[in-house]
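Feature request, filed as a ticket because there's no other form

It would be nice if the structure record came with a short human-readable summary line next to the tokens. Right now we just get the raw output. Example of a typical job, pasted below so the devs can see what we mean:
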Amino acid sequence: MRRPRSPFPRRLPSLSPPASFLSQSIRPKPSPPPPADAAGRRRLWSDPVARTRLLPILFCLLGSAACSVSTDAEFYPPVTDSPFVVTGVALPLPADQAQPINPTITLSLSDLPDAATVQFPALRLSTRSGSLEFLAEVSLVDRSIRVRPKKQLLPENDYYVVLGAEIQALSGQPLRPVSVPFRTGSFVDPAPPGDPVVTLGQLLTDAAGLRARCAQVGCHTARDAGGGSTAQPAQGLSFDAAERALADFLAVTPARGSVEGLLLVQPGVPERSYLLRKLIAGSGFARIVGAPMPPPGLPGLDAAFSRALERWIRQGAH
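Raw output as currently delivered:
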């Protein structure tokens, strides 16, 4: 007896679209690259959806340690064609001479460096055949990077300090890559004298220091116009406070104006201390909210004082 014939075909037709269709319709479209220049960032900021999402956050953040309210122009640097470059190199001896086997190389920059990007492999100390361990110190005040090897180098050998485009300014501008060659001799450079210890008391009581410049009525002081102590200092920060209490406050208080979650002072790390950034923001884009400190109309703090503040933070902010 013959088996009944199935109503279904033995072979179903393929339901898969041809490969050409897949290549045209399923292949993901590449996402447009994010705007890299300052003008592009301003176009992003002008987008109504982006502004709707960002404005509630940005306008709730007041610039810490300053008496100003932020504006959208302060979140992005002005449009500029100036590149981020190495402007100078300082070796222990002239570049055409042999260097000590324990050299310190200082590289000056055209803008405030973002210390988070100043690390290996963007920054390298190397020979022709490989990289070496090194220490790097970033100074926002001097706009510089200091590089020194962890161990003494080999005598009579060629070395290079290499900086790549991954290093950025705080504005987001990439560094123009550069390689600094030097050759060692067979001698050791005597250790330089240590930096003098800086105290918070010196920074507060200096004739051009924090109390003289920032503890004004209506700003960072609890004093009111009548000479009493009933006023609320700006951002809760009073430079009239006792030294120990003030140092503790600075070291544990998050900066309300920081999009990076910085503390007012991070002991040992001045480049991540918001107070220092507020003080030097008049010289470049320091990634702060609000106006630089002191506010416009008051005398500013000079470079020597800013270096002393940077040194106090690097020494532990005690």
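Something like this underneath would help us a lot:
Strands lie at 86-90, 105-109, 123-126, 131-132, 134-139, 144-149, 158-163, 178-183.
The first helix runs from residue 19 to 25.
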